[in-house]
Amino acid sequence: MDATALDLTPRGSVSIETLVNGPVQTNSYAVISNGECLIVDPAWEGESLVEHIRAEYPDVHVLGAVCTHGHADHVGGIAGVRAAIGAGALYELCDKDAAVPHANIEEQRAMWGIETPDPGDPTRLLAEGDTVELGDICLQVIEVPGHTPGGIVLFAATKQGNIAFVGDTLFPGSHGRTDLAGGDEAAIMRSLSKLARLLPADTTCLVGHGPSTTMQAELEHNPFML
Span 97-108, mean pLDDT? Predict the structure, then answer.
C-alpha cells in the first residue's frame, strides 16, 4: 500500500468538541476553525447535534459532515444534519464506502434491531490524497481499508499540534473489528503499518469509540502497529 506524503506544516487553529451519541456510544466530533464547523462521524440524531453546536457556538457556520467510514453508527446522524442545515449541507465519504451505509444499516437492523435513517448520497466522494478545507485548517485524507473497504483517516497539522480522526481503524492498544461485511484483517494490519509510517509520533488520534490516544503511545504499546 503506497503511503501518501503528508503536509506537516502547521496551519490554522482548531477547536474540537467530542459529542458521544448514538446506540453504541460513538464519538462524533464538532471540528471548528475560523467560524466554520464540520461534524466528523455524526452517529445519531443529527438535528440535535447541529442544534447543540449552534447554541454553544452561535457565530459558527455548520457546513455539514465528513465520515471516516460508512457504518451505520457513524453515518446515522447524516440525514438529520442535512435536514437541519438544508440545501448545500456537505456529506463527504470515501468513494470505496459509497455502498456501505445502506448495506450496513440493514445488517445492524438484522443483528441488533437498530433503526437508522438512510443518509442519502454523498455530496462528495473522497479518495487518498484529497483534502477537506475547513476554516483555516486542512484535513488530509488517508485511505485505511480493513474495518470497511473505504475507511479513511483525516489528518491535520495545526498550530495546536497534529491531529488525526482515525474512526474505527485504530483503538488504544488494538484495532477495529474486521468480522462485519467488508472487513479484512490483512488489510487493516497493512493500514496500521501505513499509519505508523505516516503519522508523526506526537499526533493525537481521535478514535470512533472511547478515549483518544497518541501515535507515540500506540507505537510503544500497540502490538498491531508494525
Answer: 94
